[in-house]
Design goal:
Elements (H helix, E strand, L loop, with lengths): L1 E9 L2 H13 L2 E2 L2 E12 L2 E9 L12 H10 L2 H20 L8 H6 L7 E9 L2 H8 L4 E7 H28 L2 H30 L1
Antiparallel strand pairs: 1-5, 1-6, 2-3, 3-4, 3-5
Helix pairs in contact: 2-6
Length: about 210
């Protein structure tokens, strides 16, 4: 058995919903079983969760998304996912130019780069003896399917979470360490502009009343 993160990219949103509903009703058997799944849509460069389910193996909640897929969605929907998704096209170009293999890209980079704005996808965690079983269930509609080693994805997600935490820590530190004099100057500039803007608004309002 192999544990995979399986992605199905659908052209039609309603067909993706229908497929996820069927997967919820029957997650599979000993040859192909889905533990967690999420239906996501890419909008304005970031991912939005439309629907999801978890068989309860990790979260014991049939309506919530958790575990590997929940953590992956958190990364893909966060700042790192946005950056990786936007840079994937450049990554492909540079790899072709240099002759490097695209397999050098992280799995998260590859997943983030799969979707473009407006597209919908089912992302699921599956234990598979026979990949054709899940493929046949997804292929009832027009779909593009990709697979990634779930253990590799999980390890990359854990590292990405660490990086996000470090980025947030560094941002907080820089804000705290910024010179107070410089910050006071910025505050004074902002306050002066706001006061000027309000004075303009009030003058215009008063003119209308007159």
């Amino acid at each position: 058995m192999a544990e995979n993160v399986v992605i199905g990219l659908f052209e039609v949103e309603s067909e993706a919903y229908q497929t996820l509903t069927q997967l919820k009703q029957y997650p599979g058997d000993e040859k192909s079983f889905i533990s967690q799944a999420a239906l996501v849509k890419k909008e304005n460069g970031s991912l939005r969760l439309l629907d999801s389910f978890d068989t309860g193996v990790n979260t014991r909640d049939d309506t919530a998304i958790g575990g590997t897929i929940g953590a992956l969605f958190g990364i893909l929907g966060g700042p790192i996912g946005v950056l990786l998704g936007g840079s994937y096209g450049a990554l492909i170009g540079s790899a072709l130019d240099s002759g490097d293999s695209l397999s050098d890209a992280s799995k998260i980079e590859q997943i983030a780069g799969k979707m473009v704005d407006g597209e919908v996808a089912i992302i699921c965690l599956a234990s598979e003896e026979d990949e054709e079983i899940l493929d046949s269930r997804l292929n009832r509609f027009k779909v593009i399917i990709a697979r990634y080693d779930a253990a590799v994805v999980a390890a990359e997600v854990e590292e990405a979470e660490r990086i996000e935490e470090e980025m947030a820590r560094q941002a907080r530190k820089e804000l705290r360490d910024e010179k107070k004099a410089a910050r006071k100057e910025k505050v004074a500039e902002k306050r002066a502009k706001m006061k000027a803007d309000f004075a303009t608004f009030k003058a215009k309002f008063k003119k209308k009343e007159d």
